[in-house]
């Protein structure tokens, strides 16, 4: 029997690293504060100790100096009375280390040290433990004068084994702890305030969904990195929204193309099928030339409708880079010269009117408007080109029946015909004005219809003027 290894017990991993940026920054600040303040507190405590130690030497030197001055002026007393508090061990020692005077605390003691200052170095600081009776002492030895037989003054106090700095140590430790805690609190508060806009950006982004991309994240004032981030996020959201709108428009164009094609192509296809089936069933009673003529007419109509529908589908996807500087006045002259219409066209053209456009598409707009005018005019058609502010205006006027004000928007819809008494062949495909509107709007312009002075219709196309070169 094979023994199975005992199951391994996995202990939960303890995550020491904070998850949030705010927590990480706070921990880093705490670490740096401790790294700086703890050594500073230790150094401060050591400096206090050194200062206290130096103070003992200074007091000893002061007392030794005062005693040497008293000897020089002949006012030495025995016993010597120390005048510096804390310095109670004072001796005056003659050459040969013979004590000639001493303070009460040093009376009866031999010379406390063998140190003997020279004329070149008249002062020495000494710590010695040579006298068991008084233990270790800190002394200052000062030569009274430079003569060879000059006595030396020793002044000092017992050296403490440990200088008591508990109070200062506690003070430095408390200061370091308080400053570290203050740094932690300040880092937590400041990073929280700095990162608050980031949290607002995150919350706003989390609330945005694909159905509504119009929302934008708040943009704080200033020019720092967070402000630039919010602006970049808003620009990105704007690009995503534009891409979504373009995608939806493309899908809508596809749906409209399918709907229009299925709606408008059904009738000529059905008519063509009926004619062919009738000719097939009654070949002897069918005039072949008449059937072929009617079939070709239906095929021509199918071709025109298909061409117009494809053009409508392409207009919305027009690339901006395809635009070029176009002399609108010259384009009108050329298009008019190519036409052979039943009515002559009057023209009022301002020279040098230029726009940024696709020439073939603007030519299609012009011909659609002229075709519409030729179908409805009685005796007169006039075309005008001129500037109006920052726009170029192209106007086509006729003296036909005119268009009722209630129908002036509807005529730009697809497959709209106001004259129901006309046949389809006379009325066109019903897409001419819809194509004209879509092309003009794709060029950032607009088209409207109004009543002409002659009583007919006046179509006005407005396109932005090209920048002067």
UniProtKB/TrEMBL annotation:
Keyword entries, A-Z: Coiled coil, Kinase, Membrane, Phosphoprotein, Transferase, Transmembrane, Transmembrane helix, Two-component regulatory system
Keyword Hydrolase attached: no
Ranges where the Histidine kinase domain occurs: 260-467
Entry keyword Transferase: yes
Entry EC number(s): 2.7.13.3
Reactions performed catalytically: ATP + protein L-histidine = ADP + protein N-phospho-L-histidine
Coiled-coil region list: 226-253
Pfam families assigned: HAMP, HATPase_c, HisKA
Alphabetical list of Gene3D superfamilies matching this protein: 1.10.287.130, 6.10.340.10, Histidine kinase-like ATPase, C-terminal domain
One CC-aspect GO term: plasma membrane
Protein's cellular compartments: Cell membrane
MF GO annotations: phosphorelay sensor kinase activity
InterPro entries listed in its UniProt record: HAMP_dom, HATPase_C_sf, HATPase_dom, His_kinase_dom, HisK_dim/P_dom, HisK_dim/P_sf, Sig_transdc_His_kin-like_C, TCS_sensor_his_kinase
Major location (coarse): membrane
The protein's name: histidine kinase
Source species: Streptosporangium subroseum
């Amino acid at each position: 029997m094979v023994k199975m290894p005992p199951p391994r017990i996995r202990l939960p991993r303890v995550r020491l690293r904070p998850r949030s940026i705010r927590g990480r920054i706070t921990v880093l600040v705490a670490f740096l504060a401790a790294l700086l303040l703890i050594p500073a507190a230790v150094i401060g405590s050591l400096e206090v100790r050194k200062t206290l130690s130096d103070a003992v030497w200074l007091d000893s030197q002061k007392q030794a100096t005062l005693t040497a001055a008293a000897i020089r002026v002949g006012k030495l007393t025995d016993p010597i009375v120390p005048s510096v508090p804390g310095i109670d061990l004072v001796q005056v020692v003659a050459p040969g280390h013979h004590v000639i005077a001493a303070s009460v605390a040093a009376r009866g003691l031999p010379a406390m040290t063998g140190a003997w200052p020279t004329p070149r170095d008249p002062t020495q600081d000494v710590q010695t433990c040579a006298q068991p009776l008084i233990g270790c002492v800190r002394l200052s030895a000062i030569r009274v004068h430079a003569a060879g037989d000059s006595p030396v003054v020793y002044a000092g106090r017992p050296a403490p084994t440990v200088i008591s700095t508990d109070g200062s140590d506690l003070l430095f430790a408390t200061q370091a702890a308080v400053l570290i805690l203050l740094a932690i609190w300040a880092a937590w508060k400041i990073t929280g305030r700095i990162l608050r806009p980031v949290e607002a950006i995150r919350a706003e982004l989390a609330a945005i969904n694909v159905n509504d991309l119009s929302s934008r994240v708040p943009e704080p004032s200033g020019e720092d990195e967070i402000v630039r981030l919010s602006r970049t996020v808003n620009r990105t959201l704007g690009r995503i929204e534009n891409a979504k709108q373009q995608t939806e428009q493309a899908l809508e164009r596809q749906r409209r193309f399918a709907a229009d094609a299925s709606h408008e192509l059904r009738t000529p296809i059905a008519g063509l099928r009926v004619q062919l089936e009738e000719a097939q069933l009654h070949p002897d009673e069918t005039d072949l030339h008449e059937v072929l003529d009617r079939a070709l007419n239906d095929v021509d109509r199918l071709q025109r409708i298909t061409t117009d529908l494809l053009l409508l589908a392409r207009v919305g996807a027009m690339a901006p880079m395809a635009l070029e500087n176009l002399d609108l006045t010259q384009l009108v002259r050329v298009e008019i010269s190519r036409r052979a219409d039943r009515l002559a066209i009057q023209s009022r053209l301002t020279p040098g009117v230029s726009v940024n456009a696709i020439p073939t598409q603007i030519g299609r707009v012009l011909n659609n408007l002229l075709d519409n005018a030729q179908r409805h005019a009685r005796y007169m058609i006039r075309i005008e080109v001129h500037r109006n502010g920052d726009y170029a205006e192209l106007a086509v006027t006729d003296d036909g029946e005119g268009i009722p004000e209630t129908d002036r928007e509807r005529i730009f819809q697809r497959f709209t015909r106001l004259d129901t008494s006309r046949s389809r062949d006379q009325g066109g495909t019903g897409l001419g004005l819809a194509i004209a509107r879509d092309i003009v709007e794709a060029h950032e312009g607009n088209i409207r219809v109004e009543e002409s002075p002659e009583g007919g219709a006046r179509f006005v196309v407005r396109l932005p003027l090209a920048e002067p070169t």
